[in-house]
């Protein structure tokens, strides 16, 4: 199965408040929200002969310079252009695939679904600690809650008392599903909570959504080794380049 082709035909998961753009060559990115979050070029497929001119013009449209994801299919010379403009390699991520034909993990009684504002606020507190996401309050929390829908976008968490110790999202993308935002509280790492969170979402994706496969972008040094042990396939490596003086990439809550 051509997983990358299927993934790229789907609308990408984007930061709320950012503005999605596309061009005729298949490039995709987002202009940031009013706080500068969601500034990213996810794909850049412009022909090499006009690459530099197009990038120069595109960067002029960004209020805050974007992070740039470089996959094996981007325009030849893109990485050289980025480094010439003081971009730096920030992170290597692995596109990882879990085929639906694999044995379905079982759901966990420890994992709960976010269904109200209070639960969402507690997950957001963990996002703020782990990813330095902005703290959501009032109307912003309600808007974010409205983005969660049973058949398309769901968010799960593991509570211990009033504390959320692990969380992760799941989005349905046509015939496949995307795992996003996986995180575990630093005081509770290395105890299997991350694995439980992944397994629960895989169960939802296959048992309730019947998707063909599940994909995720995992840090090559932290999450990817865990996912390999769970049966995920290492599909391809992506490099995330950060501009000078960049703010941290937010979690896709």
UniProtKB/TrEMBL annotation:
Annotated ranges, domain N-acetyltransferase: 110-250
Name of the protein: N-acetyltransferase domain-containing protein
GO terms for MF: acyltransferase activity, transferring groups other than amino-acyl groups
Coiled-coil region(s): none
Organism: Sulfobacillus thermosulfidooxidans (strain DSM 9293 / VKM B-1269 / AT-1)
PROSITE patterns for the chain: GNAT (PS51186)
């Amino acid at each position: 199965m051509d997983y990358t082709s299927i993934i790229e035909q789907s609308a990408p998961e984007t930061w709320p408040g950012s503005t999605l753009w596309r061009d005729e060559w298949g490039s995709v990115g987002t202009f940031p929200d009013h706080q500068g979050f969601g500034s990213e070029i996810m794909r850049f497929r412009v022909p090499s002969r006009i690459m530099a001119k197009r990038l120069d013009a595109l960067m002029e449209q960004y209020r805050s310079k974007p992070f740039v994801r470089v996959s094996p299919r981007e325009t030849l010379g893109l990485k050289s252009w980025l480094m010439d403009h003081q971009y730096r390699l920030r992170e290597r991520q692995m596109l990882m695939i879990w085929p639906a034909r694999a044995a379905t993990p079982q759901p966990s009684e420890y994992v709960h679904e976010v269904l109200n504002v209070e639960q969402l606020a507690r997950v957001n507190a963990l996002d703020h600690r782990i990813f330095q996401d902005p703290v959501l309050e009032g109307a912003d929390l309600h808007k974010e809650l409205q983005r969660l829908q049973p058949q398309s976008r769901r968010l799960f968490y593991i509570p211990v008392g009033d504390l959320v110790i692990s969380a992760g999202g799941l989005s349905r993308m046509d015939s496949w599903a995307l795992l996003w935002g996986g995180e575990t509280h630093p005081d509770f790492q290395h105890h299997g909570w991350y694995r439980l969170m992944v397994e629960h979402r895989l169960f939802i994706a296959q048992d309730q959504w019947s998707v063909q496969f599940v994909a995720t972008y995992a840090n090559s040094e932290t999450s990817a080794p865990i996912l390999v042990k769970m049966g995920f396939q290492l599909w391809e490596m992506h490099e995330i380049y950060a501009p000078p003086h960049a703010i941290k990439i937010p979690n896709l809550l």
